[in-house]
Amino acid sequence: MPKPEGGRWSDARYDKGLQYQLMSDDEDSVDEEGKWKGYYRSRRPKFRSDEHHEFLMAVDAVEDPEPSIRYVKRLRGEETEVPIPYIIDPSVRARRWQIKVDWLEEEDNKKWDRPNRITENGKEWGNDEDPEELIAKKRKVKEEKGQKKRARVSATPKEGKGKAKASVKLVKATTAKPKAAKPKMARAKGKEKEGVDEGAIAGPSKPRAQVVQLNDE
């Protein structure tokens, strides 16, 4: 599809204005019985700006150097409400100048104002960089961050199996029940009494008989 030669629309800023994803939808025109009438109905998307629409009208007016053998008539229909298409390749995504500002400011349409739907216009329109360059830089920064993160993870020392076993043994040792201590036999203290040595085991003392002396009256 050739651009107009000379004049406003031949400027390099409009080189990105021929994405087929942003073209009008062609619908079959049928009668009440469902038979095709022999022409298409071309419907402009509501998100398209007037500037982009005028550019496409100028392109349609240019004579095709290699016309199709079979010509199909197209009539203009009413505008259609469709979302801004998502295009993987950033070089052919919709540019700001191609989108109608009033349509994009409507509450239901603000969700389409995203980098994966609309890109900036580029250097030809006064921007410092083209959208392709900005996206390439963002991807490079993201990749570098991922590489640094993977390098930190691989450099972190891992615990060996021997250390893990030692920790298990330590837990077992600390949780084991202490053994009951054997009672020690008390030793008798003091000097020898009634033939019992100091080293003899002291047992319970026997009660002594109490002697009561009765006085004669």
TrEMBL record:
Basic and acidic residues composition-biased segments: 113-126
Sequence segments annotated as region (Disordered): 113-217
UniProt feature, compositional bias: Basic residues: 179-188
Protein name: Uncharacterized protein
